[in-house]
Every structure is written in structure tokens, then in C-alpha cells.
Amino acid sequence: MSVWRLSSGYLELVQGDLTQAPVDAIVNAANPGLLGGGGVDGAIHAAAGPELLGACRELLGGMGCLATGQAVITPGFRLRARFVIHTVGPIWYGGGRNEEGLLRSAYLESLRLARANDLENIAFPAISCGAYGYPLHLAAPTALGALRHGLELGLAKHAGLWLHGPQDFDFWSGKARELLGPPQTF
User: Which has the least CB within 10 A, 70, 96, 140, 160?
Assistant: First the structure.
């Protein structure tokens, strides 16, 4: 675990299982239909139980799908987190389809939704870095910058980026050190 104290909150990198995060809300890197699937999305749906799928279907109702870069919220059901914030990150097409802006929006809209629901401690995955193919070396500065900006705006008091394995954790920690300086010890 590595922690950075910012002007209005804390940014933390954690190696671990996002579905076990002891936070107010976890962020789901969802598909546009909010129907579960593979990766983080599938793991969250499995851990939350079948009620999550029902809530997602009801939430989307006539909308059909959630737009890339937007976010919606459901209860967490069987998760440790009380809520799940679902956001759709961009599919990587080479950088010419506003992928950076849409990725930034996915993080910031999730934080804005957390703020609107008085949630202070939010855990994120590395949005779009799995099946959606966003290159890590490009995603990291955008994600970390968006989280820092959201914390500085007071949209949350604590944002954690939960990374699956030691290689991901080491990579993201290195990028965070480049952008934010050395982590603090408490």
C-alpha cells in the first residue's frame, strides 16, 4: 500500500481484491449495458449477488445503455461496500477518439456521483486497462491526474486505486511517484 496526502484528501494505491475493499463505494469498470461480464465487472457482479444485475436492469430501464465516461450508482448488496458506482471507460482505438477525455470523465464522474451521495471513501479499478485495451503507460497519468483533481475539488476524502497483482501495483506506484512525488508514511 502507498498513500499520498493531497491538499484535500488522500490517494492510495492498494494491491488487492477490489470486491473486498472496506469503503463507502467501489467503482465498477462496467460495460454499457451494466450486465456484468468478465474481469472487474464480472467479479463485482459475482460478489454482490444476483440483486446487482436486477438493480442495473431497473436503473437503465428505457435508457438502453450507459454512455462512455458517465456514471450511475446502485446498492452494493452483498459487498463490503455500501454502493457500486458503475462507469463505462473508453475502448482504446489508438488515441484518436477522445479516449483520454473519456477516461478522465469516467473517474471524475464517479467522484462527482460519490459526492452527490455523501460518500467519502471510494475504491477504483484501473478503468479500461483490461479488455478495453487502454495502454497502461497512457492510462496511468490520466487516471492519477483525474483522481488528484477530484480530491483537490473535495469530491471525496479518500480515493483508492485497487490493483490486482504485484506487477500492476509496482507499475502504478512508479507512475504515481513520477506524478505525485514519494508516498507518505503514517
Answer: 96
